[in-house]
């Protein structure tokens, strides 16, 4: 299964996403994902130093600025 | 609904956009959006430390430099 | 009107462009623009701390390194 | 063999991947790879200063943020 | 004339190119350019603080990492 | 000859490659190159301050993170 299909298979479950920049660790429920790895997360929380920093709710992430995606309930 | 369609559905409402770089938090009314997430905002305001820093008016944002988009009136 | 068409409609008028990097604020007359937001500016001036830093003349800007475009005579 | 095919030939073996950012050295077993060098690694470990820093498990990496890929068992 | 065609029209003449990163100011004779603004320069010189720092000779530049191109003999 | 063809013509000879980031100067024998300037180098060595820092062997480089390519035996 190609990496972008692996991500799409995670729709409905929780993911950890690392964005470009230093402090952009986000966790949320993956609501949709396209082939460019643009992601729409629900109930998104920003994480810093292992703690929940901010609640962001519904967030759309631009695929090219995503470093990595880790499934939290694989 | 794919992430870029989610963004297009926000046309006419207020959005929070985080651009690459440290201080690029913008809020404005989404006037148009294409499939690359290039955005045209109206009544745009730059935000820093939670406060309105500068009023920028009409602004076109290049999609690949957008980190994330958050609807403010979901 | 899509964001890149909004930019193309600005041809012939003055624009403010923010490029990647810290000090890349440019102002000039938009001479041409394509769908990737590659821009050709004339009479370009580099701005720092709100002042004209350098006169650059004719400058071609690579679209993917543009953060935002603001019309100066909307 | 083109570079992306060279990477695809490494599926099933261990790779070292350097991502954008300072501390993003990852090692894992390459599970899948597409033509954009999006990668899906299993048993992924983050490396810092030559030591295993964190165990990350299953990780999807966005191709455009990969600097380089080194086969560990060529 | 589109921006990338403007660059291609500069083939055979000297250009100033600013790349991503802090110190990547290059000047050379433009030998070829494609629609992605990938450039091949000859007799390339790296510039720092307005002075010639290093002679680099024949250099291929990746278009997406080019910030701007300025013709030196327009 | 377009810039990416110029790079492909260097297959079999030694090249100097500068990647994004501060210390990513690599030298190696170009084994393959595609139109996106993804490169596969053999006998790769990382260079810092003009000295050979690390021997990396076989390395695949992602094209969009390449700043420039310089032929070492033109």
Automatic annotation (TrEMBL), chains A, B, C, D, E, F:
GO terms for cellular component: Lsm1-7-Pat1 complex; ribonucleoprotein complex. Residues 2-74 form the Sm domain. Pfam families: LSM (PF01423). InterPro entries: LSm5, LSM_dom_sf, Sm, Sm_dom_euk/arc. Coiled coil: none annotated. GO terms for molecular function: RNA binding. PANTHER family: U6 SNRNA-ASSOCIATED PROTEIN (PTHR20971), U6 SNRNA-ASSOCIATED SM-LIKE PROTEIN LSM5 (PTHR20971:SF0). This is LSM domain-containing protein. It comes from Methanolobus halotolerans.
